[in-house]
Amino acid sequence: MQWKEAEVGKVYMGNDLWLYIGMGFGLVSIAAALGYYRWVFRQDEGSEKAKHIASLIKDGASTYLAMLYRTLIIVALVLGVAIAIIFSGDPGRPYHGIYTAIAFGFGALCSALAGYLGMSIAVKANVRTATACGRSIGDGFNVAYKAGAVLGLTMVGIAVFGMCLLFLIFHDAEIVLGFSFGASSLALLAKAGGGIFTKTADIAADLTGKVELGIPEDDPRNPAVIADNVGDNVGDVAGMGADIFDSYVAAAVASMLLGASFAATIGIQYIVLPLILCTLGIVSALIGLRFVKVGPGGKPGKALNSATVMSCVIFAVLATILFAVVNGLAGEVVFNWGALIATISGLGIGVIIGFTTDYFTNDDKKPVRHVAEISASGTGLTIITGLSYGFVSMVPAIIGIVAATLVSYFSAQAFGLPGIYGVGIAAVGMLSLTGVVVSNDAYGPIVDNAKGIAEMSGMSHEVVETADVLDSAGNTAKAITKGFSISAAALTVLAMFSAYTQAIQKYSGGVPFVLDLQNPLVLSGVLLGCLVPPLFSALVMLAVTRNAFTMIGEIRRQFKSRPGIMAGTELPDYNACVGIASSGALKSLVFPALLAVVLPLAVGFIMGPSALGGFLGGSIFVGVVFALFMSNAGGLWDNAKKYIEAGNCGGPGSDAHKAAVVGDTVGDPFKDTAGPSINTLITVMSLVSSLFAPLIAQYHLFG
Amino acid sequence: MRHLYLSLMPEALIASMLSPEEFGNYYAVGAERTTQGQAVFFEIDPEFRHPEIPVEEALARCMPHADGGPKRTVYASVYRVLERLPLSVLGTLYLVTKDGRTLGVERASGSGDDGTELHLYHELAPVRPLVVSRLGPEHFFSLLTRGPDTLLRLPAVSFVELRLGELAVDPKHGSVGDLPYDNIDHLRSCLEQVRSKEVALKVVDRLHPGSFSYRTLKNGLFVGNSRDGVAAYPLPPAPTLKENYYSWWKSANM
Fold first, then answer.
1. Of A443, A131, A137, which is closest to residue A298 (Cα–Cα)?
2. How many Å apart are CA A520 and CA B122, to the nearest integer?
3. B33: left (phi over 0), alpha (psi -120 to 50) or beta
4. Taking 60 as the threshold, does the pLDDT of residue A6 lie above it?
5. How confident is the model at residue A51 (pLDDT cuts 50, 70, 90)?
6. Do both B86 and B190 map to the same domain?
7. How many CA atoms lie within 13 Å of A643's alpha carbon, on the beta-carbon side?
8. Disulfide engineering: A76 pairs with which of A20, A108, A176, A483, CB 3.0-4.6 Å?
9. Are residues B132 and B161 in the same domain?
10. What residues of chain A lie within 8 A of the CB of B249, using their CB?
């Protein structure tokens, strides 16, 4: 649905005004992020030794990102040219392909930029946070959190600015879809690559350092210690940043597409409503972030959670005021109240899902303690119990997703909007907190690095302990973020799935598009779709084990050939491990990432739109289940190990600890490589399908 | 400079050109990471000589390598060393972690007996059983070396007392907490038997592994023989270790 096709009148001008406002707030958000950036940059870097270690981490991260972005440029160019050629075949829209390709490239660039800026500040903030921890916990928290906010605010700012700009120029939601596809393609590579990198280094460092030699965490004698710290940045900052950026954009674009599909009946203002809500999200994040502080003796975890809750309340209030004011001034219902209910239901349920996820991964709660206690009876029981709680942990999230889907669908429908538009808007509501959620998430790896730098540079144990308190809060925030982002991705892809069905219906001459499970093509599609998340998970986890095996060999070689390393008289060759992790990750991610693009196209062009619909359904449902299960089980094993290390169930060195270490090693690639990457996988497959829907509707072998 | 070291795990007298810290690191992790493990050793008065131990010959062989590198170890004896050393030749005790961090501990007066009813001892040399007892460290030492009623009298012994936490008070229901011991149910049962029966001690594990976790040390290390009595080497309190010996403390808590 093109904007200009609609009968718009004054509403057209009004909607353009919203886009200018969106761009304005996008720039304000970026400016605020730059302000935080400068503030963090002005903080004391500390001792020369701390600066040297931080520079090693920074150099390692830069090396990896340079390699990653070189790969991404090639991928973006190939895909961009392909899009330009493929979508230029429609005589009615001769420049559609070029515009979509431009939007694709712009999306990829914005996603890369957000990830790069986030990581650029993270590698500067880590040493400053460590130094600030020497002054007080509040100072340490402030530096890390403001640095995290740089990523959060930059991301939402760039996303809203980019989407508003493209829609303002082209007035076509399908072109903005190209922007989303560009962001998601890059996100998949960044997330999967970062996930493989970080767990390769983490597992190799632990297995050789901790298990074989009894070297503590973050000990500078371990050749993989810098790669491990680099991994925190490339996996949890650049990777996670790109991942949430992609979900955020995809949620808005899916709703815009649905709004465009129904614009003739509900009005074109619903195309821009997702962008308006994203703008309100920026405003609530800007306000909410001002209140995040940790005083002397304060609790950083509480501060992180209060930021989320406060932004949530501010957003709900602002959205309600917006609907009331706009409808009041217009003297008619411009924005349907059903859309507001859907938005707030998505927002509320997103927060609830985030916090219920915490139940399964928090060491104050029964599941983690049960796994820790039962670990004393052997590794087998650790694995079985952790797997079981991982499966159970899906229950509240799935019920939450179901509740959000039903409430948003029927509330929208009750007020005269298409129900599926309500689902899309619920996803936007859920992701409206992205600015704050990403700030919380990016805070985690920064304090993790700060702790490592404090250890490695020989800062006092008080500084290390302060950084450790901040790190624990970061781990909890990370678990909440994962539950939140997976649930948001689930709602997003449901909306994107509907956008796909609408597109197929539109380009098939308006013939109703129904997916019937008795149709063998649909059923085959479902089965093939179900196959993708486990296959993708296996490929990226095998990449982790393969690369970790290589790195373990390198670490052993260094210890054997250079005895001074263990004696503390000689520094290891950190770059060798960074190189193995970087090249291994990049080589390993290409095939799994290609699956996300090639498989939906193959199913669509060969087996037809119905089979592709089934394929998307299968991959979405299994993908959500896998992502939730893997993230939560991995987090649970990790915290069970930490609970034992805190002096419970026998403490370090006990049988329970040995079993828990195995559980944690199994869970590491679950929670940090495969689990979160599945989010992006299903988003990319949904976007590819929606983008190519016009062609698949016309050209397919069967169906 | 040549040193003499008495290793307790395993029992051996070693001549070396390495300083205690270098020797500890080498003894724990090896030159090419081919050996690894905890080490506990004393620095011995270099003037010590004994007719049954070829100390002089070991020192004579303890010469730099052709490339100028120091000779790391020359074993003078690998058994019955402890019984032949008077307490007066024992210098600083060194506790080395699995990853080669070395902490020096000095001799101190006092038995360290806090009067608790139950004790857990890990004998290090000459044999290595894990034992529970109602006797405090000094009485336990006396029983092993001078007990009038026992057939198994040792000429010399070295042991550590390990923490029992709540098990020292309530063996049946006390929380394990951070005690990393294997087969806790058996340990509980042994503690109950010692408490309720006439026997003063009971062997928990006759083939106990040589290593133990430093963080489980209660009173430090005891060493003595039937001639000279017992000497105590108490571990500094945890806050002191954390404050002054953070690297060692961190490795010891692995």
1. A137
2. 70
3. left
4. no
5. very high
6. no
7. 28
8. A108
9. yes
10. 461
* pLDDT 10s digits, A361-413: 888 899 999 999 999 999 999 999 999 999 999 998 899 889 989 999 999 99
Using the beta-carbon criterion (under 8 Å), do A210 and B180 form an inter-chain contact? no
pLDDT band, residue B35 (cuts 50/70/90): low
Q: Give pLDDT, residue A334.
A: 85
Q: Does B107 touch chain A (CB under 8 A)?
A: no
Would you say residue A437 has pLDDT above 90?
Answer: no
In a domain, B149, yes or no: yes
What mean pLDDT value characterizes chain A?
A: 90
Q: Are strands B11-16 and B74-77 parallel, antiparallel or unpaired?
A: antiparallel
Residues 6+ apart with CB under 8 A from A4: A171
Tokens standing for residue A684? 């990319």
The closest of A609, A618, A597 to A521, measured between CA atoms, is A609
Q: How confident is the model at residue A4 (pLDDT cuts 50, 70, 90)?
A: very low
* Percent of chain A predicted with pLDDT > 70: 98
Residue A348's pLDDT band, with cuts at 50, 70 and 90, is confident
Identify the closest residue of chain A to B38 by CA–CA distance: A214
Please list every residue in chain B whose beta carbon sits closer than 8 Å to the beta carbon of residue A213: 29, 33, 36, 98-99
Question: Is there a contact between B250 and A376 if contact means CB atoms under 8 Å apart?
Answer: no
Best interface-test mutation with B: which of A375, A459, A461, A560 has the largest number of B CBs within 10 A? Answer: A461
Range of the domain at B141: 119-233
Residues B89, B131, single domain; the answer is no
**Which residues from chain B sit within 8 angstroms of residue A563, using beta carbons?**
30-33
**Chain A closest-CA separation from residue B148 CA (Å):** 38
**B215 vs A: CB within 8 A:** yes
Structure tokens at A184: 């998601």
User: A435 pLDDT exceeds 80?
Assistant: yes
Look at A546-550, B43-47, B114-118 and tell me which has the smallest mean pLDDT.
Answer: B114-118
Q: Does B173 touch chain A (CB under 8 A)?
A: no
Q: Which of B181, B242, B254 sits opposite A652 (nearest CB)?
A: B254
Domain boundaries in chain A? 3-698
Among candidate residues A324, A325, A316, A262, the one with its CA nearest the CA of residue A287? A316
Please report the pLDDT score of residue A532 as a whole number: 96
B110: buried, middle or exposed (CB in 10 Å: 19+, 13-18, 0-12)?
A: exposed
Residue type, A542: L
Does residue B20 sit in the same domain as residue B94? yes
Which chain B residues are Cβ-neighbours of A219 within 8 angstroms? Answer: 99
Q: Are residues B64 and B144 in the same domain?
A: no
The Cα angle at residue A363 between residues A361 and A369, in degrees rounded to 5: 100
Measure in Å the smallest separation between the Cα of B181 and chain A Cα atoms.
6
Dist CA B81 CA A80 (whole Å) = 78
Answer yes or no: do B32 and A215 touch at CB < 8 A: no
Q: Name the residue with higher pLDDT: A485 or B238.
A: B238
B21: contact with A, CB 8 A cutoff: no
Q: Report d(CA B210, CA B220) in Å as an integer.
A: 16
B94 and B180 within one domain: no
Chain B residues with beta carbon closer than 8 angstroms to that of A560: 32-34
User: How many whole angstroms separate alpha carbon A196 and alpha carbon A586?
Assistant: 9
CA distance B245 to chain A (A): 10
- B221 & B152 share domain: yes
Q: Residue A2 pLDDT > 70, yes or no?
A: no
- The token pair at A343 is 């938005």
Q: Which residue of B has its CA nearest to A220?
A: B247
Same domain, B59 and B142: no
Task: Report the candidate in A4, A79, A29, A6 with the shortest Cα–Cα distance to residue A601.
Answer: A79
Whether B125 and B57 have beta carbons less than 8 Å apart is answered as no
B166 touches chain A (CB under 8 A): no
> Which residues from chain B sit within 8 angstroms of residue A641, using beta carbons?
none
